């Protein structure tokens, strides 16, 4: 990707994080540009990253190898249809907008190679988890370009079927909110048990961070790691048994199924 030129259409938080990640990986500022309708947004991204920012999308995509669509899903159709006349055959289109299918994107931009991505908010701090899907005409080199782009802010994993991005949305796209909910609940419970809110929240946050790091670093699965912590007759086992008695696993499965179903519904609505 050393000579690849990348244009970001939209320069909000996700685009800014990707740009920062690419620059940290050795990209030059001359290889990256962005466009945004807001003068304030253009000034911010230019000042923060030292790249050129345009008001005109057509000017941004000129000579670009990769075009990253980073606009709100509700704006995507208008942006793509307006941009279509400025594209040249073979330019890779990467969409980081939730719920917009490859079919819809190709209807709007023409028969360009498309990679659809589902990043999540931890990408903003370089700890993202993204799912990617490529149309059949995406070359091996372009797949590598897309993977390296998303890997600049975390991990990037390919799915074989586009419908699997609904599951990615349920697990990782929406996933950070589940952990925030658990931290919120643990904090409230800690306060009821006699801790200050600040102490309970800090303990819950750092416990979540440490547990995730252990899971990432270990060769064992989460079930085995849980068993090691839950000594027979101990405090952890008492809590786990309470969770299980209340149908914890079934509750999580039901919640993720609801998220995946809603992801599919939104794709249908937004693609019209």
From TrEMBL:
GO cellular component: cytoplasm
List of residues binding NADPH: 57
Domain Pyrroline-5-carboxylate reductase catalytic N-terminal, chain residue ranges per copy: 5-99
Pyrroline-5-carboxylate reductase dimerisation domain location: 162-266
Subcellular localization: Cytoplasm
Principal EC category: oxidoreductase
Catalytic reactions of this protein: L-proline + NAD(+) = (S)-1-pyrroline-5-carboxylate + NADH + 2 H(+); L-proline + NADP(+) = (S)-1-pyrroline-5-carboxylate + NADPH + 2 H(+)
Binding-site positions, NADP(+): 9-14
Pathway annotation: Amino-acid biosynthesis; L-proline biosynthesis; L-proline from L-glutamate 5-semialdehyde: step 1/1
Keyword RNA-binding on entry: no
Molecular function terms from GO: pyrroline-5-carboxylate reductase activity
GO biological process terms held by the UniProt record: L-proline biosynthetic process
The protein's Enzyme Commission number: 1.5.1.2
Coiled-coil residue spans: none
Primary role: Catalyzes the reduction of 1-pyrroline-5-carboxylate (PCA) to L-proline.
Family the entry assigns: Belongs to the pyrroline-5-carboxylate reductase family.
Cited HAMAP family: P5C_reductase
Protein name: Pyrroline-5-carboxylate reductase
Naturally occurring in which organism (per UniProt): Pseudomonas helleri
Taxonomy of the source species: Bacteria, Pseudomonadati, Pseudomonadota, Gammaproteobacteria, Pseudomonadales
């Amino acid at each position: 990707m050393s000579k690849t030129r990348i244009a970001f259409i939209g320069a909000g938080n996700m685009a800014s994080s990707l740009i920062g990640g690419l620059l940290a990986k050795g990209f030059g500022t001359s290889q990256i540009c962005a466009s945004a309708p807001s003068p304030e947004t253009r000034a911010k991204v230019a000042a923060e990253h030292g790249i050129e920012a345009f008001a005109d999308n057509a000017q941004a995509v000129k000579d670009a190898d990769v075009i990253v669509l980073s606009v709100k899903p509700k704006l995507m159709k208008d942006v793509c249809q307006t941009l279509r006349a400025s594209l040249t055959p073979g330019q890779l289109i990467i969409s980081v907008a939730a719920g917009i299918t490859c079919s819809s994107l190709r209807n709007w931009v023409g028969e360009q190679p498309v990679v659809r991505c589902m990043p999540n908010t931890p990408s903003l701090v370089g700890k993202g988890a993204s799912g990617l899907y490529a149309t059949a005409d995406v070359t091996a080199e372009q797949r590598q370009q897309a993977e390296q782009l998303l890997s600049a802010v975390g991990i990037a994993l390919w799915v074989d079927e586009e419908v699997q991005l609904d599951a990615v949305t349920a697990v990782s796209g929406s996933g950070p909110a589940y952990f925030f909910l658990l931290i919120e609940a643990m904090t409230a419970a800690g306060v009821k048990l006699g801790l200050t809110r600040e102490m309970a929240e800090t303990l819950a946050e750092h416990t979540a961070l440490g547990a995730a790091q252990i899971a990432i670093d270990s060769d064992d699965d989460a079930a085995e790691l849980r068993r090691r912590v839950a000594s027979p007759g101990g405090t952890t086992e008492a809590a786990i048994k309470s969770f299980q008695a209340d149908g914890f696993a079934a509750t999580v499965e039901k919640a993720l199924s609801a998220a995946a179903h809603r992801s599919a519904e939104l794709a249908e609505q937004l693609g019209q």
